[in-house]
Amino acid sequence: MLDRLLEAAAPLLKPLFTLWGSAVTGAEVAAFALAILMVLANMRVHPVAWPLAIVSSALYALLFAHYRLWGEAGLQLVFIVVALWGWQQWLRKGPLSASPLLVSRLTAAQRRWALGLTLAAWPVLAWLLSAHTNSDVPWLDALPTVASLTGQVLLAQKRIENWPTWVAVNVVSVGLFAVKGLWLTVILYSLFTLLALQGWRAWQGLEGRAHA
């Protein structure tokens, strides 16, 4: 089934140009642009970020599967599910959601739990990738995968700590994608690091507010 899906997506995975000796596909270009718009919308606490995230994640799932980054590819599918939930959380529609979701911080105990669960999940996923896929970078693939899931859940809850989580994820991801020669995505995640730092700073002044 996966082979058929990749075959159907072949036009999107066709190289458009080369960057530092590596092919850049249409899927990577489109995902790059949508991801930048998504982060800018997140910085403004604007719910349009979530549909942008869904489309960008779908494109990256195809791209990562093409490059055998199975942890990252699977993560994009989880991102799509979490994005649907996050979108609903940010819109807060319905009789049980009368009050808007406000920007807030985790407690010290919650931060410890988030970090502990992330670190505990890392070797588990690395083992699964090593044992059950043809990934050639299971440990490097697994770390940003599990940490990204943590960051996505924190973002959906409008927790300020999502931003330092993304800073860490993006720094590790730069190394991962450099190993794979995905240079446009290396540039993207380098920009993500800078934008995450800016988002972290911007949300400091938004605590207790629903949006900018």
Could you provide a short overview of the structure?
It is built from eight helices and two strands. The chain is mainly alpha-helical and 212 residues long. The chain has a two-stranded antiparallel ribbon.
Please describe the structure with a list of short key phrases separated by commas or semicolons.
globular; 8 helices; mainly alpha; 212 residues; two-stranded antiparallel sheet
Account of the 3D structure:
Helix 2 runs antiparallel to helix 3 and helix 2 packs parallel to helix 8 (183-204). This protein has 212 residues and is mainly alpha-helical. The model has no long low-confidence stretch (mean pLDDT 85). The protein has helices at residues 2-8, 26-43, 49-66, 70-91, 108-132, 138-156, 162-179, 183-204, and strands at residues 15-19, 22-25. The chain contains eight helices and two strands; from the N terminus they run αββααααααα. The chain starts with a helix and ends in an 8-residue tail after the last helix. Strands 1-2 form a two-stranded antiparallel ribbon. It is 70% helix and 4% strand. Strand 1 and strand 2 (22-25) form a beta hairpin.
